[in-house]
Amino acid sequence: xxxxxxxxxxxxxxxxxxxxxxxxxxxxxxxxxxxxxxxxxxxxxxxxxxxxxxxxxxxxxxxxxxxxxxxxxxxxxxxxxxxxxxxxxxxxxxxxxxxxxxxxxxxxxxxxxxxxxxxxxxxxxxxxxxxxx
Amino acid sequence: xxxxxxxxxxxxxxxxxxxxxxxxxxxxxxxxxxxxxxxxxxxxxxxxxxxxxxxxxxxxxxxxxxxxxxxxxxxxxxxxxxxxxxxxxxxxxxxxxxxxxxxxxxxxxxxxxxxxxxxxxxxxxxxxxxxxxxxxxxxxxxxxxxxxxxxxxxxxxxxxxxxxxxxxxxxxxxxxxxxxxxxxxxxxxxxxxxxxxxxxxxxxxxxxxxxxxxxxxxxxxxxxxxxxxxxxxxxxxxxxxxxxxxxxxxxxxxxxxxxxxxxxxxxxxxxxxxxxxxxxxxxxxxxxxxxxxxxxxxxxxxxxxxxxxxxxxxxxxxxxxxxxxxxx
Lengths: 133, 328
Fold this sequence. Notes:
The structure holds two protein chains of two kinds.
Chain A: E1 8-14, H1 21-32, E2 36-44, H2 46-55, E3 60-65, H3 70-83, E4 90-95, H4 99-107, E5 113-115, H5 120-130
Parallel strand pairs in A: 1-2, 1-3, 3-4, 4-5
Helix pairs in contact in A: 1-5, 2-3
Chain B: H1 7-15, H2 19-30, H3 36-43, E1 51-57, H4 63-76, E2 81-87, E3 96-98, E4 113-119, H5 131-140, E5 145-149, E6 166-171, H6 178-182, E7 192-195, H7 203-215, E8 227-230, H8 244-260, H9 263-292, H10 297-306, H11 312-324
């Protein structure tokens, strides 16, 4: 189904840290894998991210967090998505996020968390696999 | 949730201003899914009233930043604003990096603003094929102004003129002399030329060149004479911004001109004519390729052309005669 549909992914950096290299590397890799990446850039609030995801009708939101605020930001985004009836949008992430926190995030419905050093192909494969259904 | 709503229900939600419905319908139209035509037929009666503003110019000239300011001006007037921003698709992967939202952040939490990024998907002319329909969806959503920002344009990406009522071309100082400004193409589609970054060296010179080139043209009595508006759209302090109010006022002036002189009728007529041509082209191609499908003829034709036994024009004539003859 939806054979002609292009994958659309929102890549954003919530919170206050300004290290956007990782987000840009991932955005570029997804572009090269044939996806349409909407790059929202730095310092995005959870509400800005969720609004953008809805307006842009994306299949997934990728968040890069290196500030340690992941335990605040991810839950907020999941709640907002639910409130706005958009829980079908996949949320995944990356950055410096400890293993024990990853388990906690997954239990909230967050998808895979890719930490530093992940090969971009792993992320592309994950998205292709997960968004298939 | 994704598949539950019927097309009709989605359109009713759109007419009530529902963002999710608008977003879904835009995706549907952009991907030319099966109910694309049905959606547009349902939406069409609710369109035609919005002011459509086109913004084009080279990459990095400041189109998105200016768009951000202009959204603010329209919001001050209490108007709802839809924005379509187009960026190029990769000719290699088909993917895209759509980065215009970064400059359109002032209104990211304003319910009166709907912004959609689109990839050109191989369509030439500075827009994407679906842009025409996406504007209509934004109109039906209740937006009184729709801003269409093209991808970074060179000399010949002028399709925005077939869509917009008022067309801005954004240039920066040092982009060439009056000879560049006199060339056909992008410079002649401007109703308003915005000389952005007008705090850079060379602004006065560029202004003189642009104005010189414009006044070298001859204009019919009563016709719109394109204006040059210098602006500074990025500054550390808001009071250092320049020309934004003047730009908004000049846009309003052009709108008044279009209505007073009924020039808008001509703009609308040309726009529909252009669009019909595009749809005919697309649909005829679909019909013909569908007719050839499974017959092995398409491959045969292509090979005969490669082997120089035939040429593309003869093949098209033969196919058209075969498939369209019954209509004659």
